[in-house]
Amino acid sequence: MNEKKMEKEIIISTESGSDLPEVIVERYGFYVIPMHVIMDTKTYDDGKFSIEKVYEYYERTGKVPSTRAISEEEYEGFWNQIREEHPGCVILHFTYSSKASAAHAAAVIAVKKFQDVYVIDTLNVSGGCTAHMVSCHHLVQKWLEEGRTDHAKLAQECQELAKKAVCHFIPGTLEYLRAGGRVSNAKFLSATLLNLKPVIEIEDGKLVGRKKYRGSMGKIVDRFMDSFVQQYDLDRECIYLMYSKGLDEKVLDRMEQKARQLGFRNQEFVMTGCVISCHGGKGAMGIAGMQV
User: Fold this and answer.
1) What's the pTM?
2) Region 165-290: CATH code
3) What is the b/e burial string over 105-123, where b = at least 16 CB atoms within 10 angstroms of the residue's CB?
């Protein structure tokens, strides 16, 4: 009698910069390793302290906290811990965009000491990472149902799916970008005087400024979401609504209403963690999804 080959358990892991909502972490069994935030020479683990601490630090010092990627040694300890809890498992690790952090490079070096651990570059941040990973979770389930065991091929397909993840966001203020040296004083002053809100698009893993909107978040939310949906042929199963603390509750409600009007069957709110909040500041708004 032929016995079915034992299928290996497949675990998906990532970094805190993916901003995975806790409900999604629990629903799909994802593992998350913290990136790091540095304030007053002290290093904190992202996700282990209140985001308000980032805002308080900026208000007190006029500086944005610096961020630090995960080290090779931290990755090794993280994956070994997963293996202790899930002996013999396959690990698919999704990194924050290689174009925006050194985390991916460190993971690529660390993974050389492991078998059946695959590093996948999301080429995205925050809600874009979340959208990509949830899509890959569904792909993994399909592979398991079909009894497929070529995990290197699976990792390759997950990497290909990164091209379909799209993400735009609007910083709540340019103060943090200016303090971090990403926006000049002249551009900051001009945008402030004209009440302009720049749209940041994730393009091939890089954060790129494109169009600008004039007005408050409440006044531009519909135009922002309409433009996003018109730009891409999106899977209407789920849309990821991104925000940082400080965004008006009325804007959050409108984002959810608008998503339903645009035909999305499900909506998931993604609150930005400390890493993204160091760049976007309070009251940022964003949207992410998967192209068909």
Assistant:
1) 0.90
2) 3.30.1180.10
3) ebbeebbeebeebbbbbbb
